Each structure stands twice: as C-alpha cells, then as structure tokens.
C-alpha cells in the first residue's frame, strides 16, 4: 500500500472516529431525554390523579355525613309520628301505610320500629320478625342499637356495614321512642353512595386520561396495595387485569414512597406515590406510556444524522485524497530520482526550492548524492589500499599464530617434563620397604595441568616418616615448588635431621626464598608424621588426619594449630606444634589433600570429609588397599561426568596385628592399576 492510500485511510479513519462517537452520544442523549420527558408526563398524570383522588374521596364522605344527619332527622320525625299515632289509637296497618308513603318520597329504604322487648313490630314489607339483641357475638351490627331501648343512648348513627340477615351493606340510624321504650331505626342501602362514587370517581377520570395518544393504561392502589381503580386501552395489548409484576411495583412504591420507572421494550411504566394536599400518602399510581412514537421520532432523527454524517465523510474522503496526493507528490518525485541515481544517472532534478520539510529533505538528498558520487569515484583506490593493509595484517597474524604455536609446544614439553618428574619422585615399591608393623596404600591422581600435591614415605632406624602436602595453584610454578620440597625433605632425612620443628622451619625458609626469587607467591600446606612402636607424632598444618579405631570409632585430628602454610612468612617456628596419637593393632590413619574432599559433582555439591568418615567407619576392617580403592571409587561415583579441577591424593595407613616385612603399597596415576585396580583419569 503506497503512502497516498495510507494517508487517505488515516484521515478517513480520524473522521470516522470523530463522527461515530458523536452520533452515538447524540442518540444516547436523545433517547434518555425522550424517556425523561415521558416519565415527566407520567408523573404529571399521576399528580392529576392524586389531586382528583383527594377531591373525589371527600365528596362521597360529605354526602355520607349529610345523609346520616338527614336519616337522624327522619328517624326522630318517625318517632314523633309513632307516638301521635298510638295516642290517637290508629291501627298498626294504617301507621304502616303512612310510613310506606314516607319511604317512597325520601331516600330512606326501610324502617324498623320495635316494642319494649326489642322486637320489630313495624318493619319493611316482606321482612321477617327481627328482635334486637345486646350480644355482639349474635348481632355484630344490630347490637349497637340496644342502648336506645335501655335509655343509655339518645341517638346511634352507624357507618355502612354488612347486616346479618341478608349480607347486604346498609347504613342505619336509630333513636329511642318518645313516650315509651322502643327503637326507631331507619336504613339506607349504600348502593346510592356507590353510584355517586362511580359517577364522580377515578374510573371516569382514568377514562378521560386514556384518551391521550401515548397513555396505554392507568392503575391506582390504596395504602393496602389493593387496586381501587384502573384500566387499559383495548388496543394496548395490556389486558384488563393488572399483571403481578406491575402490582408488585405499585406495592414497592408504597413502601419506598419514591417515584420509579421501568422500561420494557416499547413500554414505559411510571410508578408515582399519590399524596393529598397535606402530603399524606393516599396510595400509588402506575401509568403505562407507549414509547413507540418517541422511538420512531428518534429513529427518524438518527437516520437524518447518519445521512448528513455520510455526506460529510464522503466529502472528507474526497478532500483527503486530494490533500494526500499533494503531500505525496514531491516524495514520489524524490523516490523516482533516487531510483535513477541508483542506476547511475546522477543528474536528476530535485525540489530543493521548497521551503517546507520536503524541500529540506530534497536539499539533504542532493548533498548526499554529491558526496556519494565523490566516494564512489575514489572507492576503487581505497579498496586497493584496504586490501593491501588486510594482507599485511593477515601475514602478521599468521606469524604471531606460529609463534604462539611454538610457545605452546615448548610449554607443553616443559609441562610434560615436570609431570614426568612429578610421577618419578613418588615412592616406588623397590625403594620402600614395609617397616615396623604398618601397612600403607597410597593413591595420587593429578588434574589436567601439573599439580602441586606431594607425599613421601621414608624409613630410618625403625621409624617411618610420612609427609603429605599441597602447593597452591597449578602449572609449572606449583610443580617446581613441590619438587624443591621433595628434594629438601629427603636431604634433611639423609643428613640425620630428626627435629620436626627445625625440619618444617627449614622447608618454609626454602619455599619462602625461592618463591621470592622466582617472583612467584606460591605457598604450601605440609604435615610430617613420624611413627615408632605404636606412637604417631604429627607436625605442620594440612588437612585433618582421620584416625579410625579398630572398633569403628573415629578421631579427627585437626592440624590447624600444628603449623603454618610454608612460603608466607620467613620464620614459622613459633607456629609449629606437635600432636601424638597412639595406634593400637587394627587402627587406621587416613591422610588426604583437599582435592579429595572438595571434589564436586555437576550441581557443585562437594564430596566432603563427613562422607569420607562414614565410608571409613563402615569399611575400616578391610585392608588399606581395599579401603583405598573403595574411597576412590566413591569419589569418582560422586563426581560422575564432572571435570576434576584439583589433584587427588590419598594415603591409608593401618597398624597390623603382627609385624610384617611386606613392602609398602604405593600408587600413582601411572602404576595405580597394580595396587588398587582403578583406571587413571589422566589416561
């Protein structure tokens, strides 16, 4: 896709991103504004119902009160009429006719006149004899008139109630007799009041409100949640009865006393608490409004907005395409010029006269073309010069590589000589004899380079002198220090030096002076052991000596306080001390260098002196040769395929039960298979 199209898509995308959210926001706000207005209309209708309910509820009550007063006056007049009729001696039938004429011309529906016993002698035609009773359980309605018979009440006006004899709702008013004890009671059927309520009630008002175009249904409930008025338009599809869900909303409004709205598809239900002028809660109203016309109007507005937006977007696309072409044109020209220059046509017109970023780019490009032309013209000469320099440098590298090869060969020969000397000076079977009552086995395995491990076994006048040490580092210097110490030890033994303090101090002076002269700073740990008739004396600082008794118990002799590393200080005589251990028949002494205990596996886990002690405790009853082989096998098993970085030296000494003249067993990396039957790692 070229740059012009990318710019076009970018500008069009920006326009779309700007227009679409605007349309969405407009649609959202308009929708909610229409809902809000519809809700306001619903609240207005509910408030109209509230005011009408307050007024219409008072009218029947006022009429009912006035009717009660009229009935009381009628009852009093009838009491006077009965009294006059009896004084004149009129027959009861004639009095009944006069009462019937009065009933026909008034709102009174029936008259009950009792005798002194409370039984109604004058009653509506067709009615059975009725006797008043003061027991409220027997006559829940009529018992309230009994006090008129006893003189305890002057008038009783009763609210409309359901009477016992026929379960119809009547309102009764009663007065006592004038000249004697009797009850004069008049009654009115409340159908009159119900007709008045229907004529002036909410249903009539609701019918008028349903004539509004968007009003589909109105229902009103009282404080007990009972529907007192309400209906829906026949074409609304809401049904004649209020749904349980809407009834639940009305009852919830009574408890919360808050206006609520529920949108259900094209319907808006507005629930409003009804209050009178004193803000007393009267009930709750549900007004169901149709949102169809509002949604159609909203859809029309949205379509119009989309049409206008589409035209704007089309205009933006056209203008963007034109502007993108104007912006990309100089870049396209610059690209054509660069392609022509790449083919060798250097003279190309560039828009360097422009004052914008394109002009700056063209100017920089023209300058680069000029410099590139100059560089290409001189490139061949520079290539020839660089080729000559590289050939000369290559010859120097070849010469240096040959020198390094010769030096490595020379150093390899020197190391080979030192390694052979190292192996040659180790004790040999033909040089050492088994003296006293000791049996000795030894093992040494050097690392890849020349190491600094050293051990020797000498005997003189019934004594066995054993030395073991380790020079720091590897290589030629460490090997030379080890050779010097070996020669010095044998020289001191040959001249009859038996003082271990003097021997170690002399060796320290030798190492100290020679390493300084060699400009080397190697040092060495060294322990000297002298065995004579069961006594083993130790001097010098080295790894600890492990003494395994015949019963399997282990003593670990720490040599840290028995000396000082050789070659660090000029005089170490003050550091040298001596420790003595008595060996019983069957006791075992094991000496080693740190290459054994610090042998590590692939996870850098060290072999350790504790593991060595556990093995010696288990296998101490074996011969030194067997123990030596078991220890070395265990070390190699621990190392696995890991590389050995230090020399490994091991000496196993055991006091025999009986003196023996067998030779001391000694092994190196070369002759080891003859003693312990182990393969040499260096091989």
What share of the residues lie within helices? 40-55%
Question: What integer is the average pLDDT?
Answer: 80
Low-confidence stretches: 660-683
Strand tally is 21
Overall form: elongated
Which strand-content bin applies to the residues?
15-25%
How many helices? The count is 13
**Terminal-residue CA separation:** 69 Å
What do you see in this structure?
Among the domains are: 60-195, Beta-Lactamase, CATH 3.30.450; 202-290, Beta-Lactamase (2-Layer Sandwich), CATH 3.30.450; 432-674, Phosphatase 2c, domain 1. By secondary structure, the protein is of the alpha+beta class. The two termini are 69 Å apart. The strands form four sheets. Strands 1, 2, 3, 4, 5 and 6 form a six-stranded antiparallel β-sheet that branches. A five-stranded antiparallel β-sheet has the order 8-7-11-10-9, sandwiched between helices. A five-stranded antiparallel β-sheet has the order 12-21-20-17-18. The protein has helices at 3-88, 92-104, 146-150, 191-200, 202-209, 244-256, 292-342, 357-425, 476-494, 500-517, 594-597, 609-619, 624-639; strands spanning 110-114, 120-122, 156-157, 161-162, 169-176, 183-189, 215-221, 227-232, 260-264, 267-275, 281-290, 438-445, 453-460, 463-471, 524-532, 535-539, 545-548, 554-557, 578-582, 588-592, 648-655. It is elongated. The protein contains 13 helices and 21 strands. Strand 13 (453-460) and strand 14 form a beta hairpin.
């Amino acid at each position: 896709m070229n740059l012009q199209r990318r710019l076009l898509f970018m500008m069009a995308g920006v326009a779309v991103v700007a227009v679409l959210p605007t349309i969405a926001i407009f649609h959202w706000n308009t929708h909610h504004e229409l809902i809000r207005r519809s809700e306001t209309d619903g609240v207005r209708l509910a408030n109209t119902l509230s005011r009408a309910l307050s007024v219409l509820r008072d009218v029947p009550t006022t009429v009912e009160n006035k009717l009660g007063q009229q009935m009381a006056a009628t009852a009093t007049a009838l009491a006077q009429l009965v009294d006059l009729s009896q004084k004149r001696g009129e027959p009861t039938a004639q009095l009944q006719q006069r009462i019937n004429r009065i009933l026909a011309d008034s709102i009174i529906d029936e008259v009950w006149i009792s005798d002194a016993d409370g039984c109604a002698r004058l009653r509506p035609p067709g009615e059975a004899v009725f006797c008043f009773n003061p027991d409220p359980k027997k006559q829940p309605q009529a018992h309230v008139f009994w006090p008129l018979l006893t003189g305890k009440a002057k008038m009783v006006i009763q609210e409309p109630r359901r009477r016992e004899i026929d379960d119809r709702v009547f309102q009764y008013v009663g007065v006592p007799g004038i000249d004697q004890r009797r009850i004069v009671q008049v009654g009115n059927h409340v159908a009159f009041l119900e007709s008045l309520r229907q004529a002036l009630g909410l249903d009539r008002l609701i019918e008028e409100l349903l004539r509004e175009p968007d009003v589909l249904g109105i229902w009103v409930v009282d404080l007990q949640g009972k529907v007192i008025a309400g209906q829906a338009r026949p074409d609304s599809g809401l049904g004649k009865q209020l749904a349980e869900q809407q009834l639940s909303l009305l009852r919830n409004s009574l408890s919360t006393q808050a206006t609520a709205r529920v949108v259900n598809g094209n319907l808006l239900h507005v629930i409003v608490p009804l209050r009178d002028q004193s803000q007393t809660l009267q009930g709750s109203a549900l007004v169901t409004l149709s949102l169809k016309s509002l949604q159609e109007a909203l859809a029309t507005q949205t379509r119009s907005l989309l049409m206008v937006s589409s035209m704007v977007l089309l205009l933006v696309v056209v203008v963007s395409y034109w502007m993108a072409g104007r912006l990309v044109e100089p870049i396209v020209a610059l690209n054509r010029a660069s392609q022509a220059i790449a083919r060798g046509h250097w003279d190309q017109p560039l828009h360097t006269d422009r004052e914008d970023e394109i002009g700056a780019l063209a100017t920089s490009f023209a300058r680069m073309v000029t410099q590139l032309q100059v560089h290409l013209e001189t490139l061949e000469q520079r290539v020839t010069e660089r080729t000559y320099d590289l050939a000369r440098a290559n010859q120097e590298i070849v010469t240096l590589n040959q020198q390094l090869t010769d030096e490595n060969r020379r150093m390899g020969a020197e190391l080979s000589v030192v390694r052979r000397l190292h192996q040659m000076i180790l004790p040999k079977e033909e040089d050492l004899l088994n003296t006293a009552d000791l049996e000795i086995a030894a093992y040494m395995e050097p690392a890849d380079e020349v190491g600094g491990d050293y051990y020797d076994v000498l005997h003189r006048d019934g004594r066995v002198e054993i030395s073991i040490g380790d020079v720091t580092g590897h290589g030629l210097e460490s090997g030379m220090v080890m050779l010097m110490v070996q020669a010095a030890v044998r020289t001191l033994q040959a001249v009859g030096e038996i003082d271990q303090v003097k021997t170690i101090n002399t060796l320290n002076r030798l190492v100290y002076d020679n390493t300084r002269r060699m400009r080397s700073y190697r040092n060495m740990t060294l322990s000297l052991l002298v065995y004579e008739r069961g006594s083993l004396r130790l001097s010098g600082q080295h790894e600890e000596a492990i003494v395994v008794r015949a019963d399997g118990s282990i003593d670990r002799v720490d040599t840290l306080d028995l000396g000082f590393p050789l070659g660090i200080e000029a005089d170490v005589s003050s550091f040298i001390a001596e420790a003595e251990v008595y060996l019983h028949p069957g006791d075992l002494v094991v000496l080693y260098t740190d290459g054994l205990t610090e042998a590590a596996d692939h996870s850098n886990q060290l072999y350790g002196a504790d593991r060595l002690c556990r093995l010696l405790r288990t296998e101490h009853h074996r011969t030194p040769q067997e123990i030596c082989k078991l220890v070395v096998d265990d070390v190699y098993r621990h190392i696995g395929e890991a590389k050995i970085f230090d020399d490994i030296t091991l000496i196993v000494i055991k006091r025999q039960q009986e003196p023996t003249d067998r030779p001391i067993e000694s092994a190196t990396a070369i002759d080891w298979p003859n003693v312990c039957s182990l393969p040499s790692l260096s091989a």
